Amino acid sequence: MGLHNLAGKPAAKSMLTNISRLVSSYYTLEVKGSVFFGTSGHRGTSFNGTFNESHIAAIAQAVCEYRQTKKITGPIFLGFDTHALSEPAFRTTLEVFAANNMHVIIHAKDEYTPTPVISFLILNYNKGKTKGLADGVIITPSHNPPCDGGFKYNPPSGGPADKDVTDWIQKRANQLMAANSSEIKKIPYEVARRANTTQVQDFVTPFVNELSKVIDMEIIRENGIKIGVDPMGGSGIHFWEPIADKYNLNMDIVNPNVDQTFGFMTFDWDGQIRMDCSSTYAMAKMIAMKDKFDIAWGNDPDFDRHGIITPEGLMNPNHYLSVAIWYLFQNRPLWEKNVQIGKTLVSSNMINKVAQGLNRKVYEVPVGFKWFVDGLKLGNIAFCGEESAGASFLRKDGTVWTTDKDGFCMTLLAAEILAKTGKTPQEIYQDVLVPEYGEPLYKRVDSPIDDKQKTWLQTLTPDAIKESTIAGLTVSKIRTTAPSNHEPIGGVKIELSDGSWFAIRPSGTEPIMKLYIESYGGLNLWQKIYDEAISLIQ
Predict the structure, then answer these.
(1) H-helix or E-strand spanning residue 409
(2) 99 partner at 20 to 30 Å CA-CA among 11, 31, 77, 278?
């Protein structure tokens, strides 16, 4: 799909989501879609009947029943982000949880809760326990447009639920919806808030206090690094000031506002408002301020992604992941010598080269942070990341921090890198990594996908690809499963003889096809690969 003529431009008020109509539709519109858990939970919008009160009540009841089958008897941490549908979905969820006599812990004063904070709270609560374990729910569609809603379940491992868990919840929720809600327990919201099983807790302080166990906050403070932060109206918006105050950081929060229309955003590549902090179009306003700061960043609404801005501009997420790995494994002396580096197979091969230079093994999996949860929890994987700008890593002492993506630690790490090395992450990539390992050209292109194409991609086998050459290069490997855990990738990755590759897979959260290409022959080869890859899918 070509670039929309509004990409990178601010939205007119007439183009913004009608929030009152969106919320009203959540309660009143006829349900038209079933519950479906993709890469990051169930997502949809009340405007087309795919994210409504009936969906959320059924999912919440299914979660209660799943906990019973697995004898999960500890509290469940419940949070929501700043999307307009998140608060009504939070209310519905609490109504069901309280009716089922579940011990629910929510953020004080109806505050927003980032995804990594829920993971952190679960892990901290469960530390040293073998029974009475906690789990969590985050109501968020992540970076999706303002009209979308989302529901994610994190089991006691603290990270995204595995497919067997989400399949169980999805199946049971759809059964409950088909039964016309007769088996769903629910009480009024105000009664649920006053229930003895509902507990209010400060989520900010414990998380902020322990950040220094992950990041060298002292060196950032000592060097007076001038930091610019755009919370992008997201759930971490009230975390940055306490972080800056506690650690005495030179931090400017450039946009301290919450606006459920996200009217302060610029349009993404397709003319949609999408809070994608890895997109130069969505981040246009923050990029324009790059010269005001030594380092700057933005986060998506649930704060599980990061966008790093240096005086050179917005960093390619793959470049930053490579630099983060290069830096961390040389500056975390307490990490075990045999811990691995986790990456998704659609992330840059630069990561593999950096890992080889560090004499570290790579654990390469399909898209989805759930594949890293066990490794992080056990301390077998010290760092793991996705090309879509989501990552997390261990504490300085080599123990688990979060088992979900953390936009806080990944952005603060950029300031630590600058303070420690005197170079921005972008300068390290260009001055250190490129001379050592070469300069691949990596770009991802998104475009609409129909059901036929999606089914074809998801059911592919290597034998279905008959081409022996692409862009004049020999096809060296065709993958439909990941090399480290042999799980299906939901599409295909084709590796070429010079180290270039491309992969095609449908998004797990939007009706979009993602085409990833990494060329070791510059832009001309990239374009040739693109042209032939598009012909393949068509």
Answers:
(1) helix 407-421
(2) 31
Give the Cα separation of 347 and 378 in Å (integer).
Answer: 23
Burial letters for 408-424: b for 16+ Cβ neighbours within 10 Å, e otherwise?
A: bbbbbbbbbbbbebebb
For the chain, first and last CA: distance in Å? 13
Q: Is residue 188 part of a domain?
A: yes
Residue 175 lies inside a defined structural domain of this protein: yes
Residue 273 in tokens = 């408002």
182 is catalytic: no
DSSP track, 163-186? HHHHHHHHHHHHHHHHTTTTT---
Residue-number span of the structural domain to which 174 is assigned:
18-204
The verdict on pTM exceeding 0.85 is yes
| Residue 382 CB-density burial (10 A; 0-12 exposed, 13-18 middle, 19+ buried) | buried
For residue 137, being part of any structural domain is answered with yes
Q: Are 373 and 405 in contact (CB under 8 A)?
A: no
> Which of 179, 204, 229 is at the close of a domain?
204
Distances (CA, A) of 438 to 308, 429, 433, 522: 22, 10, 7, 11
Question: How many other CB atoms are there within 10 angstroms of residue 182's CB atom?
Answer: 6
Which member of 25, 86, 142, 388 is catalytic?
Answer: 142
Q: Give the pairing type, strands 104-107 and 198-201.
A: parallel
Final residue in a domain of this structure, among 204, 229, 255: 204
**Alpha helices, DSSP H, located in 211-362:** 217-222, 240-247, 284-287, 317-331, 349-357
Are the CB atoms for 318 and 349 separated by under 8 Å? no
Tally the C-alpha atoms within 13 A of residue 240's C-alpha that lie toward its C-beta: 28
